[in-house]
Structures are given as C-alpha cells and as structure tokens.
C-alpha cells in the first residue's frame, strides 16, 4: 500500500494530471510537468500525445528523462523532429492544445518569469531562461503552469523580468498571440484559473485544509475568488501508487 503521507510533488503532479483530461496534444516542460503528463497517460488521458522541446513527438520513454536532452525520451517515440520543424510546423502551426510549463514568478495576467530574480543587471539569482517557453506561450491554445511554491515572492503584482508574456501583454505591445495564454495554475495551495484575454487569474479551488485567506496572503495582488470555489480531491491511492511505482520509481522528480 502507498505511504499515507503525500508529498508536495505528488500532490501537484496528481492534481495537475487531472487537468489534462480531454486534451489531445501537450507540450511538456521538464520537472513537475513531466510527472503530470506521464501520470495523465496512465489515467485520464491515455491517448494524449506528449511533445518535448528536444523535438520528440509522441513520447513514451521507458523511464523519466533527467533533462530535455536525455536520450531516453526517444525510446518508443513516434517521431523526432528538427528544431525548425518542431517550432515552425508543430508550435507555430497551432498544433498544441496545452503548453505545460513551470516558472519562478507569475503575475495576475499569467505572464511568466524564468530568467532572473532581482534586477536584470545585478540579479540575486540567475535562472535558466526561456528555452522554448516563450514560443509555447505564444502558440499553444492554452498554457498550464505548475509551481512548487505559492508565496508573494513567486506570485507578484509586477514581475522582476518578463520571460514569457501572456496574450494581454503581447497585445499591449502590438503582437497578436494565437492562444489564450495561462488558463490554469496549480500550486500547493490550490488552483488559479482564467479563461483568456482580459481576465485576471482567480482562485477556483483550494486543497483540503487551505483557507481563502491563506491563499490571498500568499499572493502578491488582490486575488479574486470564484463564486463556486471548490475543494480539490486529494491524490487517490491509485494515483500515488502509479507515481511511486510506475512513473518515477527512481525519484527523479518526486521528493
């Protein structure tokens, strides 16, 4: 039987995986998004096609990749594309239902920072940067974000740096994006959501034992709350067993 204690990684992966029900194609980032999409393949979305930034399409790796360049991603994949084909045909061609990303910071409109913490010229922390995240944001029909930490340093009214602008910011700068931008944010406190352009993220669900006041205090703007706020169902024994025994038995990302 699974252990009774559920870790933050297990909670986030299980809850995020459920959001992929009914989706056909997902562009997955490495880390928690990898856990979530792999679990979704075994549960709510068995036919979902997973695409990775390294050009792998229809990924079915024998075990979890440790990096985006891990050769295990090619195992039993349906295709491996060049970068021009991946970004030009798949992403810019509008063939991705959901872009699944992580970030260090997010604001109320779903703009993301994965570049620096602090001032650009003298940052406190330098992060990996965009990679393909900006293209994923601009060209996916919608974007899901999973974040380990929900606090005012990660959920800000103003980002330290905007790596991946959502459609609202892009439109303000004269660029017309293809998709709705960030529509779901899954955190250790609950789920934030928006429908698309012109809407702020609002709290639509909390985890058991989490109050609205807790989430508001952890958010760096005046967070709106849905009228039909729900409580998230915790990970089931079946989801935990799959995560621990099948998806990530080597604890690459589970911790």
Automatic annotation (TrEMBL):
GO molecular function, one term: transferase activity
A Pfam family recorded for this sequence: CoA_trans
SMART domains documented for this protein: CoA_trans
Keyword terms, alphabetized: Transferase
Endoplasmic reticulum found in the keyword field: no
Superkingdom classification of source: Bacteria
Record bears the keyword Transferase: yes
InterPro entries reported in the protein's UniProt record: CoA_trans_fam_I, NagB/RpiA_transferase-like
Similarity comment: Belongs to the 3-oxoacid CoA-transferase subunit B family.
Protein name: 3-oxoadipate--succinyl-CoA transferase subunit B
